[in-house]
Request: fold
Amino acid sequence: MKHFRKELWFNTKDRVEFINITPQVETCIKESHINEGIVLVNAMHISASVFINDDEAGLHHDFKHFLERLVPYAPTSQYRHNDTGEDNADAHIRRQIMGREVTVAITKGQLDLGPWEQLFYGEFDGQRKKRVLVKIIGE
Ligand code: ZN
Reply:
């Protein structure tokens, strides 16, 4: 069995941002020379997510709106986590809602995705360097 590990780095312009990372994960699969196996992709930070959904701008707007309604950033004093001096309780909770990681099958050297499925990095407390782990096992 072969294995491959790589970190993808991000530094988003906005505090909340979604980035399609499918091409970067496909590049990792090529670099790994693994044709049949599994790829795990996870955010390495507790205020960011990796998830799979449609690459459609309206939907991404809807996700942001839904999260802001459910877990508003302000007032920051509404969250006990922010009593520590941080202001990112909303980002921790959003990460919990949107998930930590995805696992995708690799078949014939390709991501074995359903129609319209794309991989996204979900940033909820950005504007600083953060990373995603890609781990591939197979043969
Ligand atoms: Zn925090």
In short: The beta strands are 2-10, 17-20, 37-43, 48-53, 101-107, 110-111, 118-123, 130-138. The CA atoms of residues 6 and 28 lie 7 Å apart.
